[in-house]
Amino acid sequence: QVQVVESGGGLVQAGGSLRLSCAASGSFLSINAMGWYREAPGKQRELVATITSGGGTNYKDSVKGRFTISRDTAKNTVYLQMNSLKPEDTAVYYCYTNLVRGSSNYNYWGQGTQVTVSS
Predict the structure, then answer these.
(1) Average pLDDT, integer, range 64-93
(2) Which residue, of 14, 56, 77, 117, has the fewest CB within 10 Å?
(3) Would you list the DSSP string of 46-114?
């Protein structure tokens, strides 16, 4: 069984910052990638940022320069530092991990954490 646990969401004013954390635990051989997706009301889930085991990153265009994804490989943990937050960043943020169990790759999702940015 694999557990993906998120923390760090909350309410901030526009221009403020939050730092999200996500740790994967359980039975798996390795992690290929971790990242963050978000769902705003009435919108589809969209990619925010991902990071591979080798350290390569990918960001949604609208968060480039404001958000930074990082990892602690030893702890199987990924972080999302969110600066200069805007009301349009308001969403439920979901941690994502792609990992190896046996000889196959699997996707797992966290429970979601609410980020609310007030104007």
Answers:
(1) 97
(2) 56
(3) EEEEEEETT--EEE-GGGTTTEEEEEEGGGTEEEEEE-S--GGG-EEEEEEEEEEETTEEEEEE---EE
